[in-house]
Amino acid sequence: MDEATPHIHIDFVPVATEQKRGLAKRVSLKQALAQQGFTGQSKRQTEWNAWVNSEKLVLEQIAQQHSFEVIHGDGGRPHMSLPEYKEAARELEAARQEIEAARAEVSELQAEKETLQGTVKELKAAKKVSLDLERIKPEETMMGNIKGVTLKEIKQ
User: 64 CB contacts (<8 Å, ≥6 apart)?
Assistant: First the structure.
């Protein structure tokens, strides 16, 4: 949850009493909630979740008694358990690494493209020179001179 999301902080120390073994009183959230009648149904429906839902209902009733309108958001981000969060964080890191690798590959391919474009330009220039040379068809005159070739072309 970020600070832009409306929320409440509740601080407490859960104490379980009437213990059969060990100390008569001990700090234990699960046992304290069980003593208050909250039971866990499954891995997702724990004593803690049952208590949180109960407290939300009570707070909503109190707000309505004092003429406050309770607005339920669209849920926003789903709440994740710690293992779910760690898995999502691992997936995010893997995705970031894939993106970085893809960016590096794109950068390499762009450099290769520029090199190949330079090579293509050089080859086109060489082909043009070759075609120009093929068009020049020297002919010998009766005196042994070359007809159709200028002095400038000979010097090149």
Answer: 70
- 11: tokens are 């601080």
pLDDT digits (tens, 9 = 90+) for 17-56: 887 787 888 888 888 888 888 888 887 788 888 888 898 8
**Gap between the Cα atoms of 37 and 51, Å rounded:** 9
Using 50, 70 and 90 to split pLDDT, how confident is the model at 121? very high
Residues 115, 109: Cα–Cα separation, whole Å: 10
CA distance 16 to 35: 7
In angstroms, the CA 109 to CA 112 distance is 5
15 beta partners:
27
